[in-house]
Amino acid sequence: MYPPDKPQNGIYRVKILSVDEDENAYTLRFDIAVGASAGWATYMYQQTGKWLLTWRLDKQRGDYAIKCALSAVNRCPNVQAHTINQLCNHHLCLYLACNPAAPYINVKKSLALSAYKVSSNDIRLDPTVSWAKGSAEYLRANLLASYSGLPVVWIDFREKKSLMIDWCAAHGIILLPSPPPTGDYQLSTGSVLVDRKSNLLELYNDFVEFDNRERYEHAAVTASAHQKLLTYVVETEPKDAVRDFDSLASWSSPIPTKGKTADGNKLVTQLKRYQMIFPHTSFVFCNQDQLCDTIMLALKSGSMISQHNP
User: Fold this and answer.
1) For residue 294, what are the CA distances in angstroms to 66, 93, 228?
2) Which of 267, 265, 277 is nearest to 310 (CA)?
3) Cα(300)–Cα(294) distance, rounded to whole angstroms?
4) Which among 66, 57, 72 is positioned nearest to 11, based on CA atoms?
């Protein structure tokens, strides 16, 4: 939701953004990480110039609260925070208490991240609204990507009907509408670009038809210029019986409206030629029920080659 909802009484996953210290206390500036209130403090700061989510820990009277905060953060894997100053950019859960008569919100206690379970609705990218830069959903997605602490995948604006939208939400992955250099998907920290193909006929049309082929040769050059691998993930149907180049060579299918037949052997010849010229490219074939897992596996792996280069 954007603008974000004001937090109500309850437990929230938050990100600590900064820690200020004076002789009397620590003051932690934080924001909501996921859900309908994600980025609320940032939004309110943009509107009012005031940061409304702060947590003051008194050095003299807050010894127990300080120990609880450190304990909550240190329950996360691979985190070792020994002082409050080391909490910056870490995540934990806070129980917030809202006073309807006051703009500021009180922190009642800190808890480990396990105290809040991230749901699909907390992070799902809405495909029914605009993803254009500056749109409400674009701004919301950027807040989630910035504050959630979850993996972030860049998604092309044209992928609104993709199965990846629901799959990523269910698997705790943020989708950020931000087109990769080429293709449809890229992990924000990854070295692989994934271009999704809906079926074998689309692949045939793109790589065999001369008018389209040049565009994909440009795509390979673009990936190389960004020092990325380029993987084409191709959806197949059980009747296609295609798993790799060997089985693809035996495939054929009528081309609707053209009165022609797609020749798998001809397609394999073009794909092998493409890989020979652009060895940082690969092709992966999978049934639709394996599509999202296959895309994610490709994004996570810098060397995923299901069909070896010739």
Assistant:
1) 44, 33, 18
2) 277
3) 10
4) 72
pLDDT in tens, 42-81: 999 999 999 999 999 999 999 999 999 999 999 988 888 9
pTM: 0.92
98 plus 150 within the same structural domain: no
Question: Quick one: which of 57, 183, 38 has its CA closest to 116?
Answer: 38
260, 197: one domain: yes
Structural domain containing residue 304:
183-310
In one-letter notation, the amino acid at residue 209 is E
215-268 pLDDT tens trace: 999 999 999 999 999 999 999 999 999 999 999 999 999 998 778 999 999 999
Tokens of 291: 């599509």
Which residues have C-beta within 8 Å of that of residue 67, sequence separation ≥ 6?
none
Is 4 a domain residue? Answer: no
DSSP the chain: --SPPPP-SEEEEEEEEEEEE-SSEEEEEEEE-SSTTTTHHHHHHHHHS----EEEEETTT-HHHHHHHHHHHHTSTT----SGGGGTT-EEEEEEEE-TTSSSEEEEEEE-GGGSPPPHHHH---TTS--STTSHHHHHHHHHHHHS-S-EEEE-TT-TT-THHHHHHHTT-EEEE---SSSSEEETT-SEEEEEESSHHHHHHHHTSHHHHHHHHHHHHHHHHTT-EEEEEEEE-GGG--SSHHHHTT-EEEETTTTEEEEHHHHHHHHHHHHHH-TTEEEEEEEGGGHHHHHHHHHH-TT--SS---
In a domain, residue 1? The reply is: no
